[in-house]
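Example record

The entry below shows one chain as it appears in the dataset: sequence first, then C-alpha cells.
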Amino acid sequence: MKKVESELEDELRPEYDLGSLRVRKLGPGRKRFGDVVRLEPDVADVFPDADAVNQALRFLIRVTKENQNALRPTKGDA
C-alpha cells in the first residue's frame, strides 16, 4: 500500500502563530484555577449564583462571631 501525500491548503494568515498556543488539558490532570466547592442539589437550589452563596456565608460568619463575642464573659462577670 502506497502512502499518499496530500497537500493541505493553509488559509491561515502568516501572523497567526499557532506554535505559541497552549493546549488546555481536560480531565483530572488539568490545572485547577482556585478551589471548587460542590454544593448538594438541595442547597444549590436555594442560591441563584456564587455571589448569593458568598453573601450568605459572610452573613453566617458575622453572626457567629457576634454571638461568640456576646457569650464571652467580661472581667466583671466572673
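Notes for this example: The first helix runs from residue 41 to 44. The chain is about 35% helix and 0% strand.
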